[in-house]
């Protein structure tokens, strides 16, 4: 295990990661943090592939699942920044085929805040179908709303990516596919070489092999909205997301394959108010607007078994103990991956791992003590965190 930046003492972070690995709670971990726009922490340990003994290295790639949604949302905000998208405009104004079957009044803001009423994926899903952007986008556009747009929160576990991505694609004057848009408008300007939505063949050998610690848990009934939002055939498990065609497809809500260092740099752009190293993607005012919870943020979400989700107006999550700041914007991913940006502290953190684990409570989450060690290493553990608005 090595750190390329000696700007902070990373010994406690290394100790906590090693303890989690030795306890069997983690297999391979990579964490990176930016403070004030500078990389100050970059630590990795463990195995990327236990079967072969391949160790995690500085360029290891990890599946991050729903952390991907933060990048997809940012792409939409870039279009809004350019005046190509208005949050309160009907989705149908940009994507006419979407405005059917009860979705006629759905706005872009509804999509960002999971209130379109369209959490369910089409029936008879397969991995191959999930990899066909045009066909699946058309199928999603034809689906009926399960609730009138704006009426209630229904978490768009997978549909979020195609709804947001298709709005971006249709408002892009060049009509690039969404993967290319992300490469051109986020990755290239920020110098991100390993923030993939569909890896190239050359990256295959660097992807960490996942393990599913919760594989033996009984699944929820197929009739639940949770299972309808992520059908078993395309579940967020290694058997699906390690398939070669799935790894190479643009699946924007859950398909991101990132290196922790590049992910932290993405969050650093948001932590710096939309600009990093002289490259501005979003205005400071727009980023500040993401630090406001959407209306009815405490509303139980039926997709997530009644748990309220702290989603902000920008589509990110806002505040909470896992990110040690009520003003931090963040997004978790299935299995415990997480990334966040705190503009007040100019702090950005990415934690990637390959031991997929759903904690029943925060005290059982191995990511929590790793996050706490990062905060301590950066000297922020005693700071007063302001309440969000």
Concise synopsis of the structure shown:
This protein is an alpha+beta fold. Helix content is 30%, strand content 16%.
Explain how this protein is built.
By secondary structure, the protein is an alpha+beta fold. Helix content is 30%, strand content 16%. The strands form 5 sheets. Strands 3-2-1-15-14-13-12 form a 7-stranded antiparallel beta sheet, sandwiched between helices. A 3-stranded antiparallel beta sheet has the order 4-7-5. α1 packs antiparallel against α14 and α6 (133-142) packs across α7 (159-171). The longest helix is centred in the first third of the chain and has 14 residues, at 68-81. Mean pLDDT is 93; it is low at 1-5 and 385-389.
Q: What would the keywords be for this entry?
A:
Beta-lactamase, 16% strand, alpha+beta, 3-stranded antiparallel sheet, 16 strands, disordered C terminus, disordered N terminus, 7-stranded antiparallel sheet, 389 residues
What fold name stands as the CATH topology? Beta-lactamase
How many strands, what sense, and barrel or not for the largest sheet?
7 strands, antiparallel
Strands ordered across the widest β-sheet: 3-2-1-15-14-13-12
Q: What kind of assembly state do the chains in view correspond to?
A: single chain
In whole angstroms, how far apart are the ends?
Answer: 40 Å
Uncertain ranges:
1-5, 385-389
Strand content: 15-25%
The percent range for helix content is 25-40%
Mean pLDDT: 93
Name the CATH superfamily classification.
DD-peptidase/beta-lactamase superfamily
Class computed from helices, strands and strand pairing: alpha+beta
The topology string of helices and strands comes to: HEEEEHHHHHHHEEHHHEHEEHEEEEEEEH
List the total number of helices.
Answer: 14
Count structural domains: 1
The Cα radius of gyration reads 19 Å
CATH architecture annotation name: 3-Layer(aba) Sandwich
Which CATH class applies here?
A: Alpha Beta
